[in-house]
Amino acid sequence: MRAVQYDQFGSVPSIVDLPAPVPPAHGVVVRVAATGVCRSDWHAWKGHDDSVRLPHVPGHEFAGVVTAVGADVARVVVGSRVTAPFVFACGTCDQCRAGATQVCSRQQQPGFTLAGSYAESLVVPHADVNVIALPDEVGFVEAAALGCRFGTAYHALHARARVEAGEWVAVFGCGGVGLSAVAVAVAAGARVVASDISHAALERAAALGAEAVPMDDLAVDRVRAVTGGGADVALDAFGSRVTSAASVASLRPRGRHVQVGLLLDDEAAPVIPMGRVIADELELLGSHGISVGEYAAMIDDVVAGRLRPQESLGRTIAFDDLPDALAAMDRPAVTAGMTVAVF
Ligand SMILES: [Zn+2]
Ligand SMILES: [Zn+2]
Question: pLDDT tens digits, residue range 149-181?
């Protein structure tokens, strides 16, 4: 099968021919129909993620069709249209038994610890736990967006921040996950203010229903002004010391900060004013992907039209464009919204 692979961190990947995968007894093979191009793929490619072994096939947000099923799989059949979260859970650890598959103690991740979805096919292990059937109304491109960025925003706002209608949500960083967060928060009935350095990204956020403020030294003051004293919920959807600190600083008393953007490499240790966290009883929450169990409600929202992941899409590209699209993230994005490759 054809796959995008790199032999060294930071060297432009090539398109190679690899043996077609075979499913383990508990797993399935999915023929990829669409795969997202995500900043986390870029982090892995730059060598920021020490779980990646070379040579490596990236890609962790995908949808496609099941083409082979292991002997012990009970619930998944060949020919099904499916997706899966980017955290492949074991199904049996304490976290999985509690329904928190997104923090499975024995998790594997396609495009990080396993070969990913920048390929014609990939293996999904523990398929009875991880595979999610797609209704016909949800297209492969939309579904590819659900697994990482949209699902991550959904989990961050609902399961972690417990967002309520009428609350103010501030979103720092309007890339794929940030724009998804704007859409999820608006659909939840929240009022949203979004900040980014990119004018194009802010226009996308405004079109989704957010008040838009530029990300600069005055961003926190602007958010506090727009929200009348600070946000109830604030997300760092980018992942940097600056956006993380801005998110915390933008909160009103008893506000909830959710760290969604990965803090890696030089950005790993943001300075958080813990004095304010105490005085204002702020909550600092981490958020990591989405549990398998949350998909049903999210997909219902998509089918009903309350959530429209297609509105967070930027452009679609071809399989052959994947190496360049990965490398292009060295530079600021030209177009706002998610890039999804369609095979
Ligand atoms: Zn991703
Ligand atoms: Zn587990």
Answer: 899 999 999 999 999 999 999 999 998 889 999
Q: Where are the domains of the chain?
A: 2-149+290-342, 162-286
Q: Is the dihedral of CA 71, 77, 81, 85 positive or negative?
A: negative
Q: Which amino acid is at 3?
A: A
Tally the residues of the chain: 343
Class of domain 162-286: alpha beta
Architecture of domain 2-149+290-342: Alpha-Beta Complex (3.90)
Condensed to tens digits (0 to 9), the pLDDT of residues 2-13 reads 999 999 999 999
Residue with tokens 């009883």: 281
Residue labelled with tokens 């990646």: 52
Whether the CB-CB separation of 280 and 256 falls below 8 Å is answered with no
Query: Angle 31-35-40 (CA atoms, 0-180°, nearest 5)?
Result: 130
| Cα 43 to middle of ligand 1, angstroms | 10
Look up the pTM and report it. Answer: 0.91
**What residues sit around ligand 2, an ion, with C-beta below 5 angstroms?**
89-90, 93, 96, 104
Residue 85: cis peptide before it, omega within 30 degrees of 0: no
